[in-house]
Amino acid sequence: MPGSSQTLASKLAMLGTVARAPVARMAGWDGPAFEVRRNRRDAGEFFGREQPHPADASALYLDTETTGLAGGTGTTPFLVGLAFVADGEVVTEQYFLRRLSGEAAMLEALRERLAAAETLVTFNGRRFDWPILEARGIINRTPLEAPPEHHDLIGAARRLWHRPLGTYRLSVIERQALGIDRVDDVDAAQIPGLYLDYLQTGDTVSLEPVFEHNRHDVLCLLHLRRKVRRWVEDGVDPPPPVDWEGLGVLRLRAEREADAEGALRYALSAEEEPAARWRIASRMARLLRRGARWEELLSLWEHNAGARGSWRVRTLIEVAKVQQRRLKQPARAAAALEEAMTVVEWLAAIGDPTAPALETQVRARLLRLR
After folding, report:
1. Could you give the CA distance from residue 174 to residue 225 in angstroms, rounded to a whole number?
2. With 50 as the cut, is the pLDDT of residue 271 above it?
3. Core-most of 79, 206, 344, 370, by most CB within 10 Å?
4. Which domain holds residue 247?
């Protein structure tokens, strides 16, 4: 038997040999080639004072553990974790490959569960989990069909936490944003090796932390989706750390414009970096233009005209646009553009590379105005 120092690549090369080994020599390899571990918990106990959301009844939360983290058709999902709400309970199911020969049967059972769901919820599932399952279904002639909707929470996580946390890894979000701290959790990078060790020994003891890790992941998805729904769709402000601009963008996509504006205004008040302020102000400006709120739009740009350098020029151009087009104040528009030209001349004197393009914009607007 290979020693513990054997590389993951060499273990992968031995899978065929392991699968052909006599079952009698593999402790724990008797019985079906795949099994389902099921756990039930009272929904009231799980959600606390909150009641299950109506959308939870048709959602299936999914996370996989595989023989490799890079993906590809050679990667096998040996553990598929599911969570769903049914009959007042939160149910977790874990489809486990006890032997590689059970993959087709496992995928067939998974296909039935997928067919009963209307929404699939994952974390990076569009790029990792689902393509792998889909590929394995084709290889095993057991094609899988995703539910009508697929909510990949990694997009919301990126918007809400990438800037304040420096990452949007699920484990970090779980600890820093959801207040859930796992104890003695297995490192995800070790999981493929642990399963390959199991294939050689048939001993599932070392895999118990993997089962626990996977179960935590799917339940975390359920918690995360509920939180994101409250913050985005219900307009409840989240606790820190959170990226308020990202929250505003998510609320805009959910057509919650009033709540989105509140988040963007807060983001703008807290932001000091000029490029970020410009980006946030531009998002707010689109909202104000949509509502024909011209005085508020002018105030927005005038408030940000205190920026320095090229950002000051850009905001003064926006001030001039509102004065000329919406408020019909050409003299004030010209004054803003003249001030912008003064800043452009200073930028050109210090060799700022943005000066030529900004000068072209300002001169063109002055010519149209005159």
Report:
1. 12
2. yes
3. 344
4. 242-270
Are β-strands 89-97 and 119-122 bridged in parallel, bridged antiparallel, or unpaired? unpaired
Say yes or no: 39 and 138 in one domain: yes
Task: Write out the two tokens for 52.
Answer: 């299950």
**288-335 residue pLDDT tens:** 999 999 999 999 999 987 788 999 999 999 999 999 999 999 999 999
Copy the structure tokens of residue 308.
């320095």
If you average pLDDT over every residue of the chain, what do you get?
89
Mean pLDDT of 239-267: 97
CA separation, residue 116 to residues 59, 60, 107 (Å): 9, 9, 14
Residue 17 reports pLDDT greater than 70: no
- pLDDT category of residue 29 using cuts at 50, 70 and 90: low
CB atoms within 10 A of CB 108: 14
The 3-class secondary structure across the chain, one letter per residue, is CCCCCCCHHHHHHCHHHHHCCCHHHCCCCCCCCEEEEEEEEEHHHHHCCCCCCHHHHHEEEEEEEECCCCCCCCCCEEEEEEEEEECCEEEEEEEEECCHHHHHHHHHHHHHHHHCCCEEEECCHHHHHHHHHHHHHHHCCCCCCCCCEEEECHHHHHHHHHHHHCCCCHHHHHHHCCCCCCCCCCCHHHHHHHHHHHHHHCCCHHHHHHHHHHHHHHHHHHHHHHHHHHHHCCCCCCCCCCCHHHHHHHHHHCCCHHHHHHHHHHHHHHCCCHHHHHHHHHHHHHHHHHCCCHHHHHHHHHHHCCCCHHHHHHHHHHHHHHHHHHCCCHHHHHHHHHHHHHHHHHHHHCCCCCHHHHHHHHHHHHHHHC
State pTM to two decimals.
Answer: 0.85
Per-residue confidence (pLDDT) for residue 30, from 0 to 100 = 66
- Asked if 199 and 103 touch (Cβ cutoff 8 Å), the reply is no
- Judge if 37 and 117 occupy the same domain: yes
Asked if residue 3 belongs to a domain, the reply is no
Number of domains in the chain: 3
CATH for 103: 3.30.420.10
Asked whether residue 65 is domain-assigned, the answer is yes
Does residue 367 register a pLDDT over 50? yes
